[in-house]
Every structure is written in structure tokens, then in C-alpha cells.
Amino acid sequence: MDRRKFLKITGLGLGSVAVLGWGLNRFGIIGSKENYYLQGNYAPVKEIISEDKLEVVGSIPKELSGLYLRNGPNPMGSPNTKKYHWFAGQGMLHGVRIEEGKAIWYRNRLVGGDQSNTHVISHAGKIYAIVEAGGSPVEIDKELNSLSTEPFFGTLQTEGFTAHTKFDSQSKELHGISYAFPRGSYEAHYVVVGKDGRVKRTDLLPLSSGTMLHECAITENYVLVLDLSITFSLYKLGTGYFPFSWNDDHQSRIGLLDRKKKSNEIKWFNIDPCYFFHTLNAYEDTHGNVIVDAMRYQRVFDEDWNGPFTEFPPLLTRWTLNLSNGNAYEQQLDDQPAEFPRIHPNLNGQFNQFGYSLGIGSQQKPDFGRIIKYDFAKNINEVYELHEGEMGAEPVFIPSENQTSEDEGYLMTYVYDRATDKSNLMIFNAQDINLGPIAQIKLPQRVPFGFHGSWVPA
Ligand SMILES: [Fe+2]
After folding, report:
1. How far is ligand 1, taken at its centre, from the CA of residue 7, in Å?
2. DSSP helix/strand/coil, 5
3. C-alpha span between 178 and 211 (Å, rounded)
4. Residue 272 has pLDDT above 70, yes or no
5. CA 420 to CA 133: how far, in whole Å?
6. CB of 350 closer than 8 Å to CB of 283
7. Distance, CA 197 to ligand 1 centroid (Å)?
8. How far, in Å, CA of 144 to CA of 130, rounded?
9. Burial of residue 404, with CB atoms counted within 10 A of its CB: 0-12 exposed, 13-18 middle, 19 or more buried
């Protein structure tokens, strides 16, 4: 019997905590009792560990030398269980150092300050923990220590930065859309960090809606402004909740800002109400259309005020923006709920044949239980089902040194194992994820469910 059939029969085989979450929400219990996003492997870890004796099952490829880093929320105090939001916990980094195929150490460290909890990126020789909505990037060293909050050699002009940047491998620049509330009013900016690690462009955008701009995307000629249906909520702020909420009155739209002109004029495309935290990629097709692939939520932050996973499942969706007639066309590409999409790190803004994500399961069984690989040329996907009790995280693609095809490389992800209450760093051959992990590095503690990370080559 193959594993997929086995799981269907056992039903609750995967992620009973997550299953409980969906069930509770149906009865409106979430938010009034225990907080779903503080339970199970969402709960914070309290120990700060440095461990250099790591058991490895399988074989780490010899060509891998670097640091696998991931950032996520880890509230160290006693958060208000009714009002705590998954996006609001103090940042904690979990890192594994690998040298020539050997696991050297695991460490976890709190991010300095209390804000930068969402992503950790490297650019121009520096590593930064980053967050949206006004928190300053925190520079991190290769031992995971927080160094300073004067990012980009002190050249950042905006209040805070963004949770997601897009690296353009052609220009070696980093692109981001930031937003914050300086002096109490909403401001959004397009920010470009040059290949020298210094901010080279800061454009104020004509936006006043208070939209949560979690992510952006780039194409060859444009940066995409994702002005979707979550906006700032004064009511939630005033009552002590995470201050962003679903907003029926806000027209969802995708904006194109010309990267190459010195103008902040945006060409807008209205789309059906939705939100997406994460784009997989965007690019311009041979007809001059802009293609955007993202994990679309029908509604989110509406009934559940503590996090994103209990209302509607995120589904990979494509928008085609026709610049000739000004219309946007929407097409669902896959019916498997999935989040945390990743691609080859050098293909932002260009056509990508392959993409990767974490399959989170159906409404009846959300479980973070599978790794998905999409092939957009063949229009197929492959799915690797994790074992019973294992729950994955964002799969980061690491290209091989001398690539001959786009998917030649590895996927790395932390996987929580409910049986041991600890996590492993799993490494997959990206060209054959169905082989299962080719190496598993056993960690001394669990890595709570969190957000985003990067492979920083040695
Ligand atoms: Fe994100």
C-alpha cells in the first residue's frame, strides 16, 4: 500500500493539531479560548542552543557549504492568548552551518529588538533579518548574532523596510515595497538597494489605503504593487489586536510601476477580492502581458484575528495582466492548498519553469504534510508526502554550482517530527523529490512553524 492511500484510511494521521484548528474555526471558537497559533509546533521554544554534534541520516552533498537560516515568531514572554497574532511574535533565527557536506552546527538566537521576525536575507555580503510595517532590518553575523539596526550602510531613508525583497540577478539589485505609519499617516515606498548594498532609489507611492503590502514582485520592466483586500484597522489596533483586517470595501488591484522611468505613476489592474501574502514569481510573456503567480486566499484575517490558516485555503493562482486592454485575467493553477512558494533565486522577474511550495493540506486536513514541485512548462506537479507526524516548512531551492538545468540543485526545509517533538533539516534532490530526503540533519530541539529563510553560501 502506498503512503497516500494509507493516510487516507487513517484520516487523522497527519497534523491533528491543525485539523483541530479547522474544526474549531467552523464553530467560531478560535480567538475566544486557546490561541491556535500558540499551540503544538506554533508554540515558542525557550532554550537558546549551540550544538556542534549533529547526527546526520543519509548523505549531505559535498558541494554544499554555507548557512541555512530561517526567521520566525517566537514570543519569549507571556503573550495574551486571546489577542496574540502569529505575525507579531519576537523574531528568532534558527541556523545550520554546513561545510563541504558536513553538518557543523545548529544554533538558535533571538533577533535583536522585538520586530524583525519574518525573513532573513543576504545581500552584498551582509545578512539582514527583516519585517514589514516600520521595523528596521537588523544586521546579523554568520554566527546568528544581531549586530545593528543601521542597514544598508546607513542609507535607508524610509521608516522600516519590507518582509520580502526581490533580487534581480541581471542588475544584482534588491527591490522592495515598504510601508509604515510615520507621524501616524500611512506611507508606502518603492526601495531599490544597489549591488553595492546601498539604497539607490526611494520613491513615495501614491497610496493612502493602509494596505498590508507583505510582498512585491518584479518583471523586466516593472515592480508590482499588490494593493489587496487587507488594510489597517484602527479598531483592531485600539482593542489590542493585530491591526490589519479583511476589508470588503477595498478594491483589490495589482499595480505596475515602471522600474526604468523616474516616475511614481502606477498602472492599475482591478482584480476580484482576494489577498496573497506570497507571489511565486512574475514575468513578462512573449505577448507583452505581465504574468503573476501567487498563493491566493479568498478571504483572510476576517473571522480569525490570530493568523491566516483557518478561513480559506491558499491556492496557486495566475493573473495575466493585459497591457493593451487594461484587463486582468485570473486562473487557478492547482487545487492543492499550498504556501511559502520558492523558485530559483536568480529567476525573479524572468520565466521560471519550476517552482516549489509547502503543501498545507485540504480544509479537512491542513497538515503542512507535503513538498510540492511545479513544472510550468509541462503543466504538472510532483508531490512528496512527508511521513505521518512530520510537518514541513518553506522549501528553499539551492542551485547546484554548475547547473545544466533550472532544477538542478537542492531543496532545504525544516521538518517538525511530532513523535520526537524535535525538527530535522531535510535536504532533497530537487530533480527527484520523490526519492525523499537525501539527508536529514537531526536538530536538538524543534523549530516552531514560522516564516522565511535563505541559504547563504560560504
Ligand atoms: Fe511572507
Report:
1. 29
2. helix
3. 11
4. yes
5. 37
6. yes
7. 22
8. 14
9. exposed
Helix (H, G, I), strand (E, B) or coil at 20: helix
| Residue 162 CA to ligand 1 centre (angstroms) | 10
Q: By C-alpha distance, which of 453, 384, 393, 386 is closest to 419?
A: 386
Return the pLDDT at 33: 60
pLDDT, residue 299, reads: 95
- Domain extents for the chain? 3-457
Taking the centre of ligand 1 as the mean of its atom positions, its distance from the CA of residue 325, in whole angstroms, is 31
Query: How remote is the CA of residue 277 from the centroid of ligand 1, in Å?
Result: 6
10: pLDDT strictly greater than 80: no
Query: Cα–Cα distance between 89 and 211 in angstroms, integer?
Result: 21
CA–CA separation, 95 vs 81, rounded Å? Answer: 28
For 330-367, the pLDDT digits (tens) are 999 999 999 999 999 999 999 999 999 999 987 655 69
Cell reading at 184: 501616524
- Whole-angstrom Cα distance, residue 341 to residue 24? 27
Quickly name the fold that domain 3-457 has: Methylamine Dehydrogenase; Chain H (2.130.10)
What residue type is assigned to position 147 of the chain?
L
Q: In the numeric block, which cell numbers belong to residue 399?
A: 542551485
Give every CB contact of residue 143 below 8 A, 6+ residues apart in sequence: 107
Give the model confidence (pLDDT) of 301-331 as tens digits.
Answer: 998 898 888 889 999 999 999 999 999 999 9
Q: Which residues of 234-251 are buried (b: 16+ CB within 10 A; e: fewer)?
A: eebeeeebbbbbbbeebe
Amino acid at 362: S
pLDDT recorded at residue 65: 98
Ligand 1: distance of its center to the CA of 58 in Å? 31
Whole-structure pTM value: 0.91
Query: How far apart, in whole angstroms, are the C-alpha atoms of residue 120 and residue 110?
Result: 12
CA 339 to centroid of ligand 1, rounded, Å: 9
CA distance 423 to 45: 12
Cα–Cα distance for residue pair 236/269, rounded to 1 Å:
29
Alpha carbon distance 275, 252 (integer Å)? 8
120 Cα: distance to centroid of ligand 1 (angstroms): 11
Q: In degrees rounded to 5, what are phi and psi of residue 292?
A: -130, 125
Mean pLDDT of 99-116: 94
